[in-house]
Amino acid sequence: xNMHGNQPxxxxxxxxxxxxxxxxxxxxxxxxxLVLSLVRQHGSLSKADITRASGLSAQTVSVIMRALEKxxxxxxxxxxxxxxxxxxxxxxLNPEAVYSFGVKIGRRxxxxxxxxxxxGIRHRVRKTxxxxxxxxxxxxxxxxxxxxxxxxxxxxCTRIAGVGIAAPFELWNWADEVGAPPGAMDAWRDFDLHxxxxxxxxxxxxxxxxxxxxxxxxxxxGVGPSYPDFVYFFIGSFIxxxxxxxxxxxxxxxxxxxxxxxxPVRGPNGExxxxxxxxxxxxxxxxxxxxxxxxxxxxxxxxxxVDFGEPMDIWIKDTGxxxxxxxxxxxxxxxxxxxxxxxxFPAWVRARIVAATVSAVERLDxxxxxxxxxxxxxxxxxxxxxxxxxxxxxxxxxxDQSVLFKELA
Length: 409
Prior knowledge:
Elements: H1 28-42, H2 47-54, H3 58-70, E1 74-76, E2 91-93, E3 99-105, E4 109-116, E5 121-128, H4 134-149, H5 154-157, E6 160-167, H6 175-178, H7 193-198, E7 205-209, H8 210-221, E8 230-235, E9 239-245, E10 248-249, E11 264-266, E12 272-274, H9 281-290, H10 297-300, H11 310-333, E13 338-343, H12 347-361, E14 373-376, H13 383-397, H14 401-408
Parallel strand pairs: 3-6, 6-7, 8-13, 13-14
Antiparallel strand pairs: 1-2, 3-4, 4-5, 8-9, 9-10, 11-12
Helix pairs in contact: 1-3, 2-3, 8-13, 11-12
């Protein structure tokens, strides 16, 4: 697998019809995944709820839930008494049952996070740099994991499912934009990140495109339950995105579907540009440098930006106008239920960008186009790292989301 591979190692295919669960012993592992996935989606479910949603027999569900509770994956809640019959006992995922490492590799910074079984970030390490270099990235990953494991008990360390890495496509192509010296990033062309990390850790390693990872995190932990079809924009150093169809991330024939950065849009002066040349954080960085303002705070912490005033106002307005065009173009092809906007910045910046986008859409010619709901992402700045950390958990414990949501339909 090379640096720009965007798919995690394939999960084994369940020997079961997608129309429902199976009562055969030979696919019990899949049925357990189905139960865990249903519980995760709803927060908590009783045996009767799971039986109705899964299509499994009540006896099969009872056996599975007892096994999952014994293994510490499910927690028993307080009984809920109804008007008739036995009380209902809700079961929920145990956050401490499983942990995973998530790695986000960006053009200006890298994050290593420890995530629990329900998507909570327990600990995080962040490093900034002028531009990413392979050896430095490996060092950041290894030292970050070592530091995070140092904050865990020996028992907790035994419950680590793996390492999921969210990394951009073709890092070497963005050397000029990030200000790297000529040829400084060419080493990424032949650098097998997956293999290099796998050689150094005892856990399974998964690799996926960073924007695809963020989109997956939004599907699972964000607005996915409300919108089975949405187009997703994540504004990082460079804007990227993803497409969700029928409650599953659609990667396309080559794995690059939803790479929205190259979409052609009109710039502020009417010129033809790519979306990434307008709606990316590196553009705001350049605006700040042109005005003699230190842009480093953009990269220290995605949650602690300051209001940079006029250059930020310009960037948000231009970004909103470009996103509006991209959303109209996407909606002309597929009638998405939502256009979700998120990024590596605080919630107040995201809210301003969404408002600017909504305003810009209203000024466009919308004849024949049904505009989706334009909404804020629910996962936030850590979406890429959370998406990465989700890879080993989903590979080992949960079903593919397209199966899960079809089951719930």
